[in-house]
# Entry
Amino acid sequence: MATPGGTLLINSLFAPEKLWDELPREIQQRIIDLKLKVYTIDAYDVARRAGMGGRVNTVMQTCFFALAAIFPREEAIGYIKRQIKKTYSAKGEDVVNRNYAVVDDALAHLHQVEVPAEARSEIYLPPIVSAKAPDFVKRVTAVMLSGKGDALPVSAFPVDGTWPTATAKWEKRNLALEIPQWHPVVCTQCNKCVLACPHAAIRAKVYPPELTKGAPPTFQWDEFKGKYFQGSVYTLQVAPEDCTGCRLCVEVCPSRDKLNPRQKAIEMVPQGPLRAPERDNYEYFLELPESDRSKLPLNVMGTQFFEPLFEYSGACNGCGETPYVKLLTQLFGDRAMIANATGCSSIYGGNLPTTPYTANREGRGPVWSNSLFEDNAEFGLGFRLAVDQHARQAQELLSVLGADVGDALVRELLGAPQQGEAALSAQRARVAMLREKLKSSFRPEARRLELLADYLVRKSVWIVGGDGWAYDIGYGGLDHVLASGRDVNVLVMDTEVYSNTGGQQSKATPTGAAAKFAAAGKSIAKKDLGLLAMSYGSVYVGQVAFGASDAQTVKTFTEAEAYPGTSLIIAYSHCIAHGYDMAYGAAQQQLAVDTGYWPLYRYDPRHAGPGKSPLHVDSMPSIGKVIDFCRNETRFRMVEQQDPMRFRDLMHLLQHKSEERRALYEHMARPVTPVQPAPRAADPAAAAPASRQPASAVQPGQVTQ
Ligand code: SF4
Ligand code: SF4
Ligand code: SF4
# Structure
């Protein structure tokens, strides 16, 4: 709330002489009433020209001190520059100089705006949320979004501690200066951009051509080029007000116009002129039917037609974690039950005032809850135990109610295999039929079964978190769960640092990277979490990096979930804490894999046996050196800047460790030579004590107590 006679600084793309006319009338009137002095700067332009991307904090800080007159202007600028040197000198001279340039340029582009005596704008402030929003969003969420949440009475909140999902879609943040524009002729419809988008803001649908009748004038489609759904059409659509402008989708797009190779199938264009028409297009797109999941192949193209049930989260622009969470909800959707450890994923996953987890058209979506760093694995295991118990009760009730619902249906419900989309959809149909039949039964067991019937559809339990949880604070519990043999899936999104709490090192931080508590560069090796899990012989383990191989990522997720025991996926997640433009996150992941820094593999205990190996290394032997990967990231460059000799030694160690690990994995991936059983000892006394004899092989899915 500005005080009368105060100063208002606006970061705007509009030229100073045009800015006033672009302000909504309510804002103009407020400025006039309060007699504010108005200044403007295009901070994004200043930052971009200095090679700072979208980081405008130094620009805005400089303008603030120049206008606030807390110190004489020259003195204030001197303080800022000294602070820049102190803050960024560890990141290199280049970063310091770019920040200095930004300070000087900011002052040159700061302009005062003339304030007329009357407000005459034809533009008016839009409502905080759309009139189509549900009642709770209008009564509670919108109040919080407008910054007046403290005025809400306690009675406005749900009494049972739950919080409505599917609310992020009403918070139109309009963050992006530029959004992707689609060129259907160039597009091969691979859907790679859809998978990579961290914010579910670019989506694809395939649908009958007659549904294009009545589409808005600028809505685009093209003949579907895939093998499935012959005669259908395809649309790739951006959500203009939810896109953050991170550019990751454009960077992963492999298709270029043959006649003009600079032209990709999507390219970034200014959001302003497209906002209104693309908003209409997106609304039309959302109304188009979803594809039949059971008819789509489980590859990148096919799965990216699945509706995401995690959308528009508040994660950083271009976040490397959220594509995995989104994929999880696309693949396992309303069957997913997610136990989320504290960390970035619990913040962007369960933030206020809006929630990115959402529901499908039937109103079903993932179950989500957050627990502590130190007990999340056990928390998720509790989900499994509860689900199994409920399913058992439902099965017992079914047996009791055979005469009421029909023996054939009971047999089918109890014997359904429930692997694959078609089988799951058949089981859902049976549960719907069961519910119909239960309506005509007056037995108390029927009422109880109505409450539990959904547990007859196989649930998919996921234990999710970052490396701070999995490698460090929650490791004891995670190890306990991995050893349990229970059917839970663990997803570790590895940013190799405590991202959310400010960049402290974790046991996942690699040799040579700087982090808090490892300012000179970490000198010991990253823990090999996958190898520890493989040592049980009963855990499915996959290591993935979607930017290097989205196909291997999708395969690993589907295999892990189908595995009837414990599974662990370790997912490389680029992060702002690594210190480079997130638009290149996928390219950097590719480099991590190509240089041997991050091998891709799948360890499936079902493939163990004579002449086979459960481990399959999916990535090729390295090309290049890990230093080629490291030098692109500030977290490593800081170490080189401080002490080049130490950096060289640490890189040498990292290279050695990477090669050693690759050699070990390749050795483990060789077919196992059958071990001949030792001849039985004639003298029982010569036999080894029972406690030292090898345990019999643990079978996949076997429950150990
Ligand atoms: S620019 Fe970023 S947020 Fe926008 S559609 Fe592309 S990947 Fe998604
Ligand atoms: S990545 Fe490129 S070619 Fe593939 S669907 Fe997206 S725009 Fe089309
Ligand atoms: S800090 Fe890193 S992991 Fe966390 S939201 Fe930002 S980019 Fe994603």
About this structure: Residues 376-400 form the longest helix (25 residues). Residues 684-705 have pLDDT under 50 and may be disordered. Residues 178-321+332-377 form a domain with the Alpha-Beta Plaits fold (CATH 3.30.70.20).
